[in-house]
Amino acid sequence: LIASHFDQTDMVQKLVTAMVTALPDLMREYVSLSAVDRSRAEAIEALITRSFQGLRRLGMLDEIGLFYRRLAESLNASVDPDKGETQSNRLLLRIAAGWYFLGQQEAAREITSKVLLRLTDAASLDPPTARLLCGYLDAVGHAPAEEAIDRVLGAFAMNRGTEPQIANVAPSLTTDSHFSISHLDVVEAAVMSLVNADISLTAETRRWLDEDELFVRNRIHQEMRAAEEGTLA
Fold this sequence. Notes:
The chain has about 230 residues and is an all-alpha fold. Helices cover about 70% and strands about 0% of the residues. The chain is globular, with a radius of gyration of 20 Å.
């Protein structure tokens, strides 16, 4: 993103290539992390999100598609079926949010439906699984508005008057005698998924706004170069 601000197109392409090349090793490290390495896992998840946001602001839709395909391939190849999938599913949900942005609805739904099944199978939600629920709510918040609302309300059965699909979040922290952080995290994720800027926009409108921002940025670069060369009218 910094390189793009200085109109270093070649550098941006090199960085994207290097990032895609590094994904297999990064995913192997990610799935090998234990619960005590939560901060490292969250750092990798944040890196994926920031990478998407940076490429999105540059209008690099083809690169975003390539990045997420390689990411999904590398993650699936690194997952050990004998180990818990909670952590890898959290990252898959980041990918699902990207697919929704690119209009790849079926690819996104395949991931979110798989995670929802995992959540509904749980007798209760321990803190790691509660974080997975938060990730699910965030991901479906990037879906088209009608689908996003249905998915969020459906997770808690608020639109059917039946028992919730998802079990209660299990309190397990030292603060539980006063309040439950896990419950607050889930409530916050549900609210934020329904009030984020994307939910009020169609995929076409989101892309139009990104393209408009890119046009303005390119115009700034053009005028800066012209000013440096003394040719600005």
